[in-house]
Design goal:
The protein is of the alpha/beta class. Helix content is 40%, strand content 8%. The protein is built from seven helices and four strands, in the order αβαβαβαβααα. Strands 2-1-3-4 form a four-stranded parallel sheet, with helices on both faces. The radius of gyration is 18 Å and the shape is globular.
């Protein structure tokens, strides 16, 4: 594991990308969303968080961060609120497969998807199933920020198990990009999905597009959580980089 001065794939010339692949670097793909996050948070919140955590971690591990996928699978938000632009699940799967193929063509044999939006999981996991079939030498992994460790999962869900634009996300935006937060417009709403067994679109469970208590957010709490996320991703990338196929 070795730190890099520039972890962004898009900022490097081809020789540097090729050298990173030869050195065993992991291709890290942040996936987020462009969607409503209530009246107080920017629509690019999920993408910003996935990208910033990925860049901070990769700068310590020597891995390369691909350009973020800023459109995710956000169908549950519907057109009730402006701001959401969603891919269909099959479209997102196809895009991730294409990115994986080209990362492989550049010499990378390990791919880690770092996800910032909950319902990106199924299409991304489908993409990894297809890539494992097409490229048997590729070793992929999908991980969501909010599931990196049990402690992180508990921290994210303090105010809402099925959170959205909640205290945790708002706190991290206050730390990373305070200009993207309109604190005076923050609205708290409870998680109305607790105890239910069916799935619901966002308008059925939230009047504001928020689930959780963003009014409790602070930049200090955001900094603390962000550092937890980066440390956990560093550990995951380091383990993935050193991991070898099991002996048969």
């Amino acid at each position: 594991m070795g730190a890099m001065t520039e972890p962004r794939w898009s900022a490097l010339a081809m020789d540097a990308v090729g050298a990173a692949a030869l050195a065993g670097a992991i291709a890290v793909l942040p996936v987020g969303a462009t969607e409503q996050h209530g009246s107080h948070l920017a629509t690019g919140t999920d993408t910003l968080l996935a990208e910033e955590v990925s860049l901070a971690a990769a700068s310590r591990t020597g891995d390369l961060v691909l350009p973020s996928l800023a459109y995710g699978c956000s169908l549950g938000h519907t057109s009730r609120w402006p701001g959401t632009i969603s891919l269909m699940p099959t479209t997102m799967t196809a895009v991730v497969v294409e990115v994986g193929r080209w990362a492989y063509a550049s010499g990378f044999r390990k791919l880690v998807i770092v996800n910032g939006h909950a319902t990106n999981g199924p299409p991304c996991q489908s993409a990894l199933l297809q890539l494992r079939h097409e490229l048997p030498e590729l070793r992929p992994r999908f991980v969501s920020l909010f599931e990196l460790t049990p402690a992180i999962a508990a921290r994210y869900t303090e105010d809402a198990p099925d959170f959205h634009a909640n205290e945790a996300e708002t706190s991290m935006l206050l730390h990373l990009a305070p200009a993207h937060v309109l604190r005076e417009k923050a609205v708290d709403e409870p998680d109305r999905t607790v105890g239910r067994v069916l799935l619901y679109p966002m308008p059925a469970v939230s009047a504001s597009g928020v689930v959780g208590s963003p009014s409790a957010a602070t930049a200090d709490r955001g900094k603390e959580l962000f550092e937890q996320l980066v440390s956990a991703l560093v550990e995951l990338l380091a383990a993935a980089r050193s991991e070898q196929d099991p002996p048969l």
